[in-house]
Amino acid sequence: MSKLAGRSDRRLSRGSGYPRGIMSRTLAIVLLIPCLHVLADRATLADPPPVIADFEDFLVIEPVGKGGRSPVHTDAIEAAIVDGSWATPEGGDAVLVGRIPRIWQSASAGEGGWLTDDALRGGYALVTVDRDVAGPAILEARGHSMVYVNGAPRPGDPYANGSLRLPVMLEAGENEFLFKVGRGRVKARLVDVPRTEAGVAKTFFFTGADDTVPNAVVGVPLDTYAGVVIGNLGSKWMPDRSILVTGPGGETATSAMPAIPPGSVRKVPIRLVSAAVETPGVATFRVEIVDPGSVEPVDVRTLDVKAVEPSAPRRVTFRSEIDDSVQFYGLVPSSTVPREGDPSGGPGLILTLHGAGVDARRQAAAYAPKDFAHVVAPTNRRKFGFDWEDWGRLDAMEVLDHARRTLGTDPDRQWVTGHSMGGHGTWQAAAHFPDRFAAAAPSAGWIAFHTYGADRIEGDDDPHSIESIMARAANPSDTLLLRDNLDELGIYVLHGDADDNVPVDQARTMRRSLAESHPDFAYHEEPGAGHWWGNRCVDWPPLIRFLEDRSIDRDRNRFRFTTVSPGINAGGDWFRIAQQQRANAPSRVRGTRNDEEGRIEIFTENVARLELDLDDRAPAWTVMIDGEQVGPDAKLDLLNGRGAPAFYDRTPDGWRRRGVINPRAKRPERNGSFKDVFRHQPILVVGTMGDEEEDRVTLAKAIHDAEAFLYRGNGVLDMILDVDFDREQHPRRNVILYGNQKTNAAWSQLLADDPLEIDRTGIRFEGLEVTGDDLAVLAIRPRPDWATVSVGVVAGTGIAGMRLTERIPIFQSGVHYPDLVVFGPESIEPKTAGLQGVRAAAFFDHDWSLGDDHAVRETPKDE
């Protein structure tokens, strides 16, 4: 591997960056936090915290590997951290990238505290801080992708929005901060922790950043949720604390405080209750962390809620079913409220998706009120979020459902539109969910990552090779694979012909494709217009009229549908593609349904199981699949109950109707792949059965992922220690095990009878085996006690393997993983090309067994 120059006596003993002894065999969590001396007097709690250290003098180094929107990357410095050879460098030390040395050089922060350097377009910045005593501090940093704090990975703030204020533990002596930076600049400092009037560090505290707050509506009582970020500087995971919220009129609401790992932050839902306000303005709520054993609150703050007129644009909050977090969307109410009893039904709903860096309320406010529809703008979970894929796609559809329920809109008059990144989201939403929208209207939208400049993983001639499996895992991002679905709804494409951000070729490509077969599309290029040409480029009158003129009125007796994953969308209102022959390859159905004759004829491609909802009728339905009559079957009708869903399986002897379905089998509700485990209110279970270093690194990885999901997705990942986990107390939830079967005590509760085995010698799964104590593993398995939820695994086969998991980009949009993937340490070596460091990959079979769709790379290959 690449060598890092540096004296061995400067090598730091690295684990998680949390104090040694934080976890022990007795599972006591001991976090020694000596009080720092009060650095300055503060007159009030609102005063800025004293600065411990402004980071001004750095060492920087240019990129030492290759990254990108990919499940793999290379990095010589990370490789040294993983194998334990990392040593704090000095100026002039070299890092070899292949045979090319990269040199650590001195650099200083400039105006406003920003360190700006071309080396930081993918390189590193390092700073050390000396302390006389150990103790806590708050790291405020911007512009970085991530940072190692004394060896512990913590998420970065690449968009420099200042939302992360992370508690860190400083050691006595030298403390190392190693920033990975991608956009050319970084700014960082340490400030003192919140303290009581007596100068004692608060155990739990409000960070005061990144609130999720609704608007109140004049004349309407408020009873909804907000989200506030709380940090933990104490030693307890499960605090005996509660949160008390007092409204402007004295109304109160109390909720229990969730678990927060020591030395970390999480967003906490709070309930806001108040009587109706009579005029626009600000309603102020008092929010307290309450200790039942103390008269004084642990911490206190205020939260301002702006009240707006009923007709004004506003923010609406709700509790997400994905992770139980508090999310919001922007709303511009319709200018016309239908009269009671109006036979025309409720108003329509325009779902508008914002571009990168745009707030959802601002997106909604770009539209004038419509007399025929409400305008609803989901968030993509953040201003940048997930490019309207993964959790961004889930957010869009969750907001659509929430707004439809609460606003009483007409489900046949739903449209999706969006600008730039939101234009891409429009293509994605329409292609994946053609049954949900009457029309789609992308403005300045790009089609897919690979058409917009990102590299694309290419499979090879072997459909079951690692390359082919990893390529298929990424198929949900490929809008063009679902192109035929777009024929099912109206399409209006809008683009400026001088767009220097999203080239107009993206729109022209789709125009050529639509012209081949689409029965209802319109296209407009605005001459001389760039990327953003004012509100008109979203609230474009011809586009709006196009939407208004269309309703969902499809012939349900003729159908055509394509999916690349039944877990995203399995089909229409009466048929579902329940299983695929080849996972994540396009699956297609087309056919006719004749209600008068009681006859259904379906032709399929890459479909292993069909589920049909057939109404109770006599005589029974005649079902033809791929030219073969299947049934009717009076015995199965009697067994299942007439009118119950009917299941049809492709067998070597043709299609057969099934009477009994294995509830453990793959199904749309539990289909994989790996990233699917981060929904259904997931809970992270942290292993504590390893040695002290293994436990520190495992905990640090789990904290990193929870904080990264907060930053990337405004999300919540509950976390608990393995010895405190009881599966009976956490029903119907996805569970992610951090650690392997030897280091995580909860493995026996969830995967004791599962064929997946991971220990310090390697990984084994039926006929698949990869040996080594330095492997990283991601996997998804069925949870044995519930039919619709899963168990995820984030594991290393040893301490190096667990470190190798630290920077796997789980929450990056456009990056995908199959059901199982195994990385070797060579995957991050600069000399490794492409996917050569992936040791194994698999999509599990319909019963979650190994099947044929897997591959193992016996020995690392160099190119």
Rg from C-alpha positions? 28 Å
The rough form would be described as: globular
The biggest beta sheet reads: 8 strands, mixed
Please, what is the average pLDDT? 91
Low-confidence segments, given as residue ranges, are 1-45, 339-343
CATH architecture of the largest domain: 3-Layer(aba) Sandwich
For the record, the count of structural domains works out to 5
**CATH third-level topology of the largest domain:** Rossmann fold
* SS class: alpha+beta
Provide the spatial order of strands within the biggest beta sheet: 22-23-25-24-26-27-28-29
Helix tally equals 11
Would you identify the CATH H-level superfamily of the largest domain? Answer: Alpha/Beta hydrolase fold, catalytic domain
Q: Report how far the terminal alpha carbons are from each other.
A: 14 Å
**β-strand amount:** 25-35%
Task: Write up what this structure looks like.
- There is one protein chain.
- It is built from 11 helices and 49 strands.
- It has an 8-stranded mixed β-sheet with strand order 22-23-25-24-26-27-28-29, sandwiched between helices. The chain has an 8-stranded mixed β-sheet with strand order 40-39-41-46-45-47-48-49. It has a 6-stranded antiparallel β-sheet with strand order 5-2-7-12-9-10.
- The longest helix is centred in the C-terminal third of the chain and has 22 residues, at 692-713.
- The two termini are 14 Å apart.
